[in-house]
TrEMBL record:
Family, per entry: Belongs to the RecN family.
Recorded coiled-coil stretches: 158-250, 318-355
Pfam families according to UniProt: SMC_N
GO biological process, one term: SOS response
Name under which the protein is recorded: DNA repair protein RecN
A GO cellular component entry from the record: bacterial nucleoid
Source organism of this protein record: Polaribacter dokdonensis DSW-5
Protein's job: May be involved in recombinational repair of damaged DNA.
GO MF annotation: an example: ATP binding
Sequence ranges assigned to domain RecF/RecN/SMC N-terminal in this UniProt record: 2-507
Length: 550
């Protein structure tokens, strides 16, 4: 429940901090005193959008902070879900900077407005007159019925499976679409795959082929130079091999005279061994040089095939061709195995659908069972509120369609007059009747949900006398299960509150500000007397006020 609201630099409020408690709290004040400003500030901290017009002083930031006690409302799972620190007394803060930038915090952790809006649904229901149009909204009508039917846990399970079913259906449609497109391209992809597969390209093949071809195209120069290299190496008179042998012989004769000569001799011997090995390889290379026109043609044909494939697939290497081959294999395989994949997806859909059908059936049965109780409770409450002939016709019709909250269609019809025809609420109920119906609905919801706080903004407009007493009695009953805050103009309702707050304007140094204070018992008497008789309070009004309070 809301335990404290503090407001700084918002609209006509300079600085204000007020504590709230459980039970029924009343807020009164003259028209234009600023009650709507309080609701605006509360809406701001609960996620409403804001702009610079919210700032009283545009050179300072606006800060609205609400403390809410939440330990009894099973919200730990939600806080974990949105990655927030859970505190039994949670602090929600909203700031609007002079630049117009807005920031929101929950327990000092920055949050998006979407998180605040999710949190407000679980914490505070602000009900004003225009919200009576919710009564004609089918989803809200389901909310009323499901609250009495105790369908919360079943609906949570249904939503999980409903999302799963929609995801599977989406995947199934994507598979079918992909299959359709793949079928259209299958023959061409298969041709491309077979062509690449038969080519049997290797990663480094192109470089090897180009090197071989380069060698064969220069065979004469290679042969000539190899022959000359052998001549230089092996000539009996001036050949390098012969000269190295002579040099080796000369140094070996003096190697025993010093370590220096021995080292030189060994190095020449090493060079001689290496050179002899080189000459052997030159002889082998020279013997293997052979001109083969057929081999050149084969190499050219193979390279041309590779070049053509690379050009066809807009790539520059065999590695890229092999990647395309893998992709084509997947596409071909996808088409050839698609039927099995699609059938498996169909089976998944059938399994989830059966689970969803079973949950939906339980939801339908619970709703059907709850309708008589809901009808009786609403009609009894409305009779107390002066609508003795009010009747409801509520029917659930199972369908084959999957909706976000089950498989039912709901008919929620109303008749205000005896013998009158049933019709949609927005068509057959007046504004005053809608207000009383909504109050009755909220009473039913308060007894069947865990909502911590409800705020009624002048729901009593247009009623008086005994009906106002009945409205006050309903609010008192509701306040046993939740915190109820009522903004009212009726003294009969104001007198029923456990706590009473007054909104008033005050002028300081030519500047008007809105203030809120909690009234003492004596101040309540005066406030209610003023509500009864106006500014000129009579003795009879004071007496009447005391009677109402007692």
């Amino acid at each position: 429940m809301l335990t404290q609201l503090s407001i700084n630099n918002y609209a006509l409020i300079n600085q204000l901090a007020i504590d709230f408690s459980s039970g029924l709290s009343i807020i009164t004040g003259e028209t234009g005193a600023g009650k709507s400003i309080l609701l605006g500030a509360l809406g701001l901290v609960l996620g409403n959008r804001a702009d610079l017009s919210s700032l009283k002083d545009t050179s300072r930031k606006c800060v609205v902070e609400a403390k809410v006690a939440i330990e009894n409302y099973n919200l730990k799972a939600f806080f974990n879900e949105v990655d927030l620190d859970y505190e039994a007394e949670t602090i929600i803060r909203r700031e609007i900077l002079p630049s117009g930038k807005s920031r929101a915090f929950v327990n000092d952790t920055p949050v998006k407005l979407s998180v605040l809006n999710e949190l407000r649904v679980k914490l505070i229901d602000v009900h004003s007159q225009h919200q009576t149009m919710q009564l004609s909204d089918n989803s809200f009508q389901f909310t009323i019925l499901d609250a009495l039917a105790k369908n919360q846990s079943e609906l949570e399970k249904y939503v999980v499976h409903f999302k799963k079913l929609n995801q599977l259906k989406k995947e199934f449609q994507e598979l079918e679409q992909a299959q359709k497109e793949a079928n259209q391209k299958h023959d061409y992809n298969l041709h491309l795959f077979n062509e690449l597969d038969e080519a049997n390209v290797k990663v480094d093949e192109q470089e090897e082929l180009e090197e071989k071809l380069e060698k064969l195209n220069n065979i004469e120069d290679i042969k000539l130079n190899l022959s000359e290299a052998l001549e230089i190496s092996e000539n009996e008179e001036i050949g390098l091999q012969n000269l190295l042998s002579t040099l080796e012989n000369r140094l070996s004769k003096i190697s025993s005279f010093s370590k220096e000569y021995q080292s030189l001799s060994e190095r020449i011997t090493s060079v001689k061994i290496e050179f002899d090995d080189i000459v052997a390889e030159l002889e082998n290379a020279n013997d293997n040089v052979d001109f083969n026109p057929n081999e050149i043609e084969e190499l050219n044909d193979r390279l041309q095939l590779i070049y053509n494939l690379q050009k066809k697939h807009y790539v520059n290497s065999n590695q890229e061709l092999l990647t395309i081959l893998e992709e084509l294999a997947d596409k071909v395989s996808q088409v050839e195995n698609a039927e099995e994949t699609i059938n498996n997806k169909k089976k998944e859909i059938e399994i989830v659908s059966k689970k969803l059908d079973a949950i939906a059936l339980i939801i339908t049965k619970n709703r059907t069972k709850a309708i008589p109780n809901l009808t009786k409770e609403l009609e009894t409450l409305l009779a107390d509120l002066g609508m003795e002939n009010a009747r409801f016709s509520i029917k659930v019709k199972p369908t084959t369609s999957y909706f976000t909250n089950g498989k039912d269609e709901l008919s929620f019809l109303f008749s205000a007059n005896k013998g009158g025809n049933f019709g949609e609420l927005k068509k057959v109920a007046s504004g005053g009747e809608l207000s009383r119906i909504m109050l009755s609905v909220k009473k039913v919801l308060s007894a069947n949900t865990q909502l911590p706080t409800i705020i009624f903004d002048e729901i009593d407009t247009g009623v008086s006398g005994e009906v106002s007493n009945k409205i006050a009695a309903i609010m008192q009953q509701m306040s046993k299960n939740m915190q109820v805050i009522a903004i009212t103009h009726l003294p009969q309702i104001a007198a029923k509150g456990n706590n009473h707050y007054k909104v008033f304007k005050k002028e300081i140094k030519g500047v008007t500000t809105t203030n809120l204070k909690q009234l003492s018992t004596e101040e309540r008497v005066v406030e209610i007397a003023e509500m009864l008789s106006g500014k000129d309070i009579s003795d009879s009004a004071l007496t009447h006020a005391k009677e109402l309070l007692n």
